[in-house]
Write a structure and sequence with these properties.
Length: 457
């Protein structure tokens, strides 16, 4: 049998112990901020029913859902024969695939809320840190398998929730060491108002999908796409001043109120944004710049109010977080009139940003802090009480099994970046003073077991 060259699917990765230390730092930091704001953790299955996911992300999003073939003889079970084998993929897929890998954490969360509504205390504030899958084209900062760190609150219409999500982004990313990032905010009601004012209320999805691409394809690209979707030159002339709004958040809001004077829904969006800005005025941000960006649309069908997106200004990278208000998401699963708002951290992109900016600490409590080295089995037995004491005091410690040369044991410590070693030979056992070495400075001293424990606490 020919040997198979080991590899992983494009857009997926293995993570080494060093990488996992860094990833856990990100996850633990974000989780700690979520908990501080009253959010509780849940988990949902890796796969969902296909009909749970489809129709929730727009036509472009649906194309990126990874479908799972039915187990067994899916062709026979689906009764596929010459009469239906030529069906297009949209009609064929449900026949041979009833499940899919989750595309995000928000839709499964909405499904969870509906299924567990009688057990939940509302408003329900949850966070979730799990992988998601998208059949996207892999590129820098974009993977097919990646983790999301989501927080959502359902059952509360208060705009204080939106303001707190801005604070959560600011606090978590500041704790991770980012020094220059922008939290962009918009409101889908304003976008609906713009479509209403130019007489294109029925084309709101086409409008939002197009202007959301402004950063990627430029104004000319957006105009070209809108023209292809049936917008006229006159429509676009009305849109241009709004799309290209400039100035402070208050100046932009003032301009929007003028432009949307004949649109009640557009003005309501302006009022909601102003309320969020007022909350933030009373709770000043530590690091983030909060910016009203009218071109932010996030092209997802389920957003109905505020929309968020976070971008770092220190590294060329796509968004590192995003989210928004969704007033009707759970209605798709039979639970009407339950409003919600949520955000997501793009952990993999945050990792890449931190790596590029060298923000990860060189020392960490997630790796071994001290390695005990001994010459023989007698030294190994002598070392066990010290090993037990170190671990009892929550100090990460290892005992290298007896029999290896000391040089090899020291190489092990260096390769694992273990900062301290303890050497136990016959002299050390006789005197009770052990050779304690700082592997970074090379400084070595004789200390008792109790002194070593106290020093490492």
């Amino acid at each position: 049998m020919a040997s198979i060259k080991p590899s992983v699917p494009k857009g997926t990765r293995d993570f080494s112990p060093i990488e996992m230390v860094k990833r856990n730092l990100i996850f633990d930091t974000i989780k700690s901020v979520f908990r501080k704001y009253g959010y509780q953790q849940i988990e949902t299955p890796t796969m969902e029913k296909l009909d749970t996911l489809t129709g929730k992300y727009g036509e472009e999003g649906d194309k990126l859902i990874f479908k799972i073939l039915n187990s067994g003889d899916f062709i026979t079970d689906a009764k596929i024969d010459s009469s239906n084998i030529n069906l297009n993929f949209k009609k064929l897929t449900p026949l041979i695939s009833g499940k899919a890998l989750r595309y995000d954490l928000t839709v499964p969360f909405a499904r969870y809320v509906v299924m567990h509504q009688n057990e939940i205390t509302f408003p329900f504030k949850r966070f979730q840190v799990q992988p998601v899958w998208r059949a996207d084209r892999p590129q820098r900062g974009r993977y097919r398998e990646f983790y999301q760190c989501d927080a959502d609150v359902v059952g509360s219409p208060s705009l204080l929730n939106e303001a707190e999500f801005i604070m959560i982004y600011d606090e978590a990313l500041s704790k991770l060491g980012l020094k220059d990032f922008t939290i962009k905010i918009n409101n889908r009601k304003i976008l609906s108002g713009i479509a209403e004012v130019i007489g294109k209320a029925d084309n709101i999805i086409d409008l939002t999908v197009a202007i959301d691409k402004l950063d990627k394809i430029g104004l000319d690209g957006v105009i070209k796409e809108l023209l292809e979707k049936g917008f006229t030159e006159a429509d676009i002339e009305k849109l241009k001043p709004v799309i290209l709004l400039d100035g402070s958040n208050s100046v932009k809001l003032h301009s929007l109120r003028d432009a949307l004077a004949d649109s009640p829904i557009g003005l309501k969006g302006c009022d909601e944004l102003e309320t969020v800005f007022n909350y933030i005025t009373n709770c000043p941000l530590q690091t983030a710049t909060l910016e009203l960006d009218i071109t932010l649309a996030r092209g997802l069908n389920y957003y109905t109010g505020a929309i968020f997106e976070v971008k770092t200004n220190e590294v060329a990278m796509g968004s590192i977080g995003g989210g928004g208000r969704y007033d009707d998401l759970t209605g798709m699963f039979g639970l009407k009139d339950l409003t919600g708002v949520g955000i997501s951290f793009g952990a993999d992109r945050i990792y890449d940003v931190m790596e590029e900016l060298n923000l990860f600490p060189t020392t960490t409590n997630q790796t071994t802090k001290v390695l005990i080295c001994c010459f023989d089995s007698e030294g190994e037995t002598f070392a066990l009480p010290l090993l037990h004491s170190l671990r009892k005091n929550n100090i990460n410690a290892e005992l290298y099994p007896a029999g290896a040369k000391i040089k090899k044991q020291m190489e092990y410590a260096n390769n694992k970046a273990i900062p301290y070693t303890v050497l136990i030979g016959s002299d050390e056992m006789q005197s009770g003073l052990l050779a304690f070495k700082d592997m970074t400075s090379g400084l070595q001293e004789k200390l008792s077991a109790e002194e070593i424990v106290k020093l490492l606490l």
